[in-house]
């Protein structure tokens, strides 16, 4: 069948599709971006996200390298400028921990942590940081105002 030279060519599917997409793009409305707090994004990365990531790597390395009995009697206090501050509960624990540090603990932790930010370990004794509320079993019976008929609790051992 011969084509009519005066007939308009049929729109190709790609042309009609591109027109449809163009119309959709013109109707699409984007909410304007709020840049009022954009200045905090870099500061957050610097002050929170990166130190958190660095500390996570150091924590994982410490859990693997420090013996359980020392971990229970110590805690990581801070990591600033490559110096890890560890608080211990007694001078005896400080001595045992210091032996590990002098034996190369800082180097091994730095090797195992992801960011290798650790340069030095500083130890500090603070027994007050480890004080726990201890129930000594005292029931008040030695108080001068104790009345055994009124204050007696059968649940408590005598």
Structure characterization notes:
- The chain is of the alpha+beta class and 158 residues long.
- It has helices at residues 13-27, 39-65, 68-72, 91-102, 105-112, 148-151; strands spanning 74-80, 83-88, 120-125.
- The chain has a 3-stranded mixed sheet with strand order 1-2-3.
- α2 (39-65) crosses α5 (105-112).
Multimer state: single chain
How confident overall, as mean pLDDT? 77
Distance between the termini: 114 Å
Q: How much helix, percentage-wise, in residues?
A: 40-55%
Please summarize the sheet with the most strands. Answer: 3 strands, mixed
Question: Briefly, what is this?
Answer:
This protein is 45% helix and 12% strand.
Descriptors:
158 residues, 12% strand, 45% helix, alpha+beta, single chain, three-stranded mixed β-sheet, 6 helices
SSE topology:
Blueprint: H1 13-27, H2 39-65, H3 68-72, E1 74-80, E2 83-88, H4 91-102, H5 105-112, E3 120-125, H6 148-151
Parallel strand pairs: 2-3
Antiparallel strand pairs: 1-2
Helix pairs in contact: 2-5
